[in-house]
Structure formats: structure tokens, C-alpha cells
Specification:
Blueprint: E1 6-12, H1 19-27, E2 34-41, H2 47-57, E3 61-66, H3 71-81, E4 86-91, E5 95-96, H4 100-110, E6 114-124, H5 142-147, E7 161-163, H6 164-170, H7 181-190, E8 194-206, H8 212-215, H9 217-235, H10 254-258, H11 263-275, H12 279-283, H13 286-296, H14 308-317, H15 321-333
Parallel strand pairs: 1-2, 1-4, 2-3, 6-8
Antiparallel strand pairs: 4-7, 5-8, 6-7
Pfam families: Glycos_transf_2 (PF00535)
Organism: Sphingomonas pseudosanguinis
InterPro entries: Glyco_trans_2-like, Nucleotide-diphossugar_trans
């Protein structure tokens, strides 16, 4: 059997509300030379029945049903089983516009020095209406993407198409970077290839308050900070100590992990900056981290992250008076 040009990697977990629309949009692509790997990651809703019904109608669909293992193991399984030259990501609640694959294949065919191409996106609500209040214009050319590595946003993960050979070369996604596995991947791929985005908006990206970016803000910022630190080690010609990790250690263990003092302190400051505008994180596990950051800087006030007193007011306005009082006490002691 001739291998397809594209392997679509679709991981599904309890997406039955949106899954049919996602699958329909993939099967309606103008570029049809693809296989569609669908990992049902232990869904407890009707996702399995929807996947099997579509697979019975279209031989390009290869369903994989497994116990719940999480996104990273699911993606790595699809990379291992992929037969296409290119791997196209997609989530079970998004919608690909008909020309998405055709435009991305044409770009990668014409730019052999590029290993990844995403697209700009149209944000939609949980019910599918456009969100006029939420627009991100991802950088287009490779130089702009590289320049945005530290601050982002770089690429919309479910919009990207990547060369399978590169994904295999870098070892796929890394388990330690759960909730920011895509950002760690972009940092590693940037060291080997060029990445870009098409200017066209070729994916309807469903944006809701239940997404990882809302539910795991602290973990995302912590993982991203460590990923940047690991990148700096690689660029300096030193081993990446996070390579092979299955989870990230507590912040206080980072000095020992990276073999020098001051790493944990720097990471606490960076994560503090990242979560200042997220009251749920400020009031939860982020509060002890910020308090420790304040203690770090008692003898060096110039190094303290600005805006912490405003964060107290933000917590109070968000209906979290206890957390506001605890943060205010930590700042007053400092």
C-alpha cells in the first residue's frame, strides 16, 4: 500500500459534543491523501461510538482505543504509528477549513528548510460562534516566529503540520512538559529547522474556560520557564538535565538538577510574572510560590517582580479575600 502524504494526529477525550464536526471538516479537505489516526484516550462519553461509525464509512480513519493516558502519550503513539511524510495536528473540538491541508502541503513542499507550518486561526465559542473579543495574529515568517520564542505566541498547536522525520529525530513530545508539551517541542525544533505560519485563518479554534490554558496556568508557566532554561543549557553546549524526565521536580530542587545556585530563585520570579493576572492560580498553588519569591528578595528589593500589590487588589475584586489577605501579609513582611 502506498503511504499517504499526511498522517492526521487527532487525540480525543470526551469530545462527543464537537467530534462529528471536527471529523467532517477533515474528511472534507480538498487535499485527500491522508490517513487519520484517532486516539480515543479513555473517553467516557459517546466519542468511541462516533469514531467507530466514521471509521466504518471511510477507510482512511484508523481508530485507536486505549485507557486514559493523557495527551503526550497519545501524540507519541500516533507519531510512532504514522506513515505519512507530514503529521498534521488537530483537536477533537476544532474545525479545519477545506483548504488547510492543501495550503500546508504546498508550503512544506516548496520550503524544504522549514519543518513546521501552522496557520492563523478563527476563535470560536463553545457553541461555534466567532469570538470578536479574542484574536491572535501569530507571527508569519520564520524569523518572526524565532523572535517570538521567549514571549510567544508562536504557533497554534492544533493548526500545525510537521515533517515526520523531524518529529522522530527529536523524540516527539516530552512527558515532563505536560500542559506545555507543544512549547517545549517548538523550542527544540527551532534548534534544527525553521517554522512559520500561513497568513490565512484555516482553523476554527474552539476557545473555552475549560481548556488547559485556563485550568493549568501555573503548571504551564512553570513548565515553560523550565523549558527555556533547558534550551539555554543546550545552546551553551551543556547537557539538557530535563531530558528523560517524566515529571518536573519541585521548584526548590532545580538548583541541584541544573548544578548551580540561583536557578530556583530565577524560576520563581519568572512564574510569578506569568501568573499575576490569573486570580485562580494566585489564590491556589501559586500563592506559596509568590510568598517564597518575596522572601527571596527581602534583601534585594530591586529584584522583586513589580505589580504584586496590584495583584492583592485583583484577588479582592475576584472574590478571593482570604488569598488577598495572605498575599498582603507576605508583602508587608517583606
Amino acid at each position: 500500500m502506498t503511504s499517504p502524504r499526511i498522517t492526521v494526529a487527532l487525540s480525543v477525550y470526551n469530545n462527543d459534543r464537537y467530534l462529528a464536526a471536527a471529523l467532517d471538516s477533515l474528511l472534507a479537505q480538498s487535499f485527500g491523501d491522508f490517513e487519520l489516526l484517532v486516539v480515543n484516550d479513555g473517553s467516557t462519553d459517546g466519542s468511541r461510538a462516533i469514531i467507530d461509525a466514521y471509521a466504518a464509512r471511510d477507510p482512511r480513519i484508523r481508530p485507536i482505543h486505549q485507557p486514559n493516558r493523557g495527551l503526550v502519550p497519545s501524540l507519541n503513539r500516533m507519531i510512532a504509528e504514522a506513515r505519512g511524510d507530514y503529521i498534521a495536528r488537530m483537536d477533537g473540538d476544532d474545525i479545519a477549513l477545506p483548504e488547510r491541508f492543501a495550503r500546508q502541503v504546498a508550503f512544506l513542499d516548496a520550503h524544504p528548510d522549514h519543518g513546521v507550518v501552522g496557520t492563523r486561526v478563527i476563535a470560536i465559542t463553545e457553541t461555534g460562534e466567532p469570538r470578536a473579543d479574542w484574536t491572535i495574529d501569530h507571527p508569519i515568517d520564520a524569523d518572526a516566529v524565532h523572535a517570538a520564542l521567549e514571549a510567544g505566541p508562536l504557533l497554534c498547536h492544533p493548526s500545525v503540520m510537521m515533517r515526520r522525520s523531524l518529529m522522530t529525530m527529536v523524540g516527539g513530545y516530552r512527558a515532563a512538559y505536560r500542559h506545555c508539551e507543544d512549547y517545549d517541542l517548538w523550542l527544540r525544533l527551532d534548534e534544527r529547522t525553521r517554522m512559520a505560519n500561513l497568513p490565512e485563518r484555516l482553523l476554527r479554534y474552539r476557545y473555552s474556560t475549560t481548556q488547559v490554558s485556563h485550568r493549568h496556568v501555573l503548571a504551564q508557566h512553570y513548565g515553560a520557564a523550565v523549558a527555556r532554561l533547558a534550551r539555554a543549557e543546550r545552546i551553551a553546549g551543556r547537557p539538557d538535565p530535563t531530558d528523560g524526565w517524566t515529571t518536573l521536580p519541585p521548584v526548590d530542587d532545580l538548583d541541584a538538577a541544573f548544578g548551580r545556585a540561583g536557578v530556583a530563585r530565577a524560576i520563581r520570579a519568572e512564574v510569578t510574572r506569568g501568573i499575576l493576572y490569573h486570580p485562580d492560580s494566585l489564590a491556589g498553588d501559586g500563592l506559596p510560590l509568590i510568598a517564597k519569591h518575596v522572601r527571596d528578595t527581602r534583601s534585594d528589593r530591586g529584584a522583586r517582580v513589580p505589580g504584586l500589590w496590584r495583584a492583592v487588589a485583583r484577588l479582592a475584586r475576584s472574590g478571593k479575600p482570604v488569598a488577598a489577605m495572605r498575599l498582603a501579609k507576605a508583602l508587608a513582611r517583606g
